Sequence to fold (347 residues):
Amino acid sequence: MKALVYHGPGQRSWEDVPDPKIHDPGDAIVEVDAATICGTDLHILKGDVPAVTDGRILGHEAVGTITETGPSVTGLRPGDRVLVSCISACGHCVYCRRAQYGQCRGGGGWILGHLVDGVQAEYVRVPFAETSVHLLPDEVSSEDALLLADILPTAYEVGVLNGHVSPGDTVVVVGAGPIGLATILTARLYSPSLIIAVDPAAARREAAEHQGAHLTLDPGTDDTVTRVQELTDGLGADTAVEAVGVPETFELCTRLVRPGGHVANVGVHGRPAALHLEDLWIKNVTITTGLVDTSSTPTLLRMLAADGLPVADLVTHRYALSDIQEAYDVFERPAETGALKVALTTG
Fold:
């Protein structure tokens, strides 16, 4: 089969690799119908994730059709159309029993495209299949379902829920890429009174307004901290969500948040960021980080099936899976291309 293979920082190749096989009784083999590219994949290609080694097939977001199951898999069968979650769950360890699947200690967590071969391929082996894939209803398209593999549960759990977004709040989302836009979309479920998106790219600020941001700011020309304070009687945001993954945006969030507020870090960081405790210690600020657990995926899937999540505009570019190299070239230059999420399909 063909797959997108990592060969060290800056090196990727669409090449022939062996077909995956059942290794463990709980495995399933999934024929990939649709996949996408994540900002985390770009971090890997920059060398920010050293656990990813030469020869690894990338990708952790896919929809596909089961072709084979291991002997202990009883709830899935060949022909089932499934969402492959970015998080795998053993289902038995102390963290899985708390629905904290991202911290699985039984061999799961974020492993696809990280510690085991991922989904940017024609076929993928999915460990712990019964607790790591979701059956898809007919009314949910493969393209829409892709957005539930990672970005929507990540934004909802790590941004909105960890950030304790509540009715009437002021929420600032720093970074209006795919995760930031998904944060805006899911924050609206809690009726904040003001959502502010901060991003230097005009196209992404426009996308943020389309997703429901009440105001957008350009950090290159706007005094972001002053504007947020002016809009909040000098207090700052109830919740500031970091959705980029660089030191400057994290530190900006700590300046935007009000006393007693929450900073929810969603971005993947490859460099150290300063934590100015000399300013923050007295403000009763809560700072959270997190890898998504995907415990919210069934809920989000029900909402998607009921037309309760307007996700279609998050996909801006579509390619055949075999054109994945071109898709990467477009995805990694969003300021020039306007790319948010790309859909890669085999049909």
Q: What stands out?
A: Residues 7 and 71 are 34 Å apart (CA to CA).
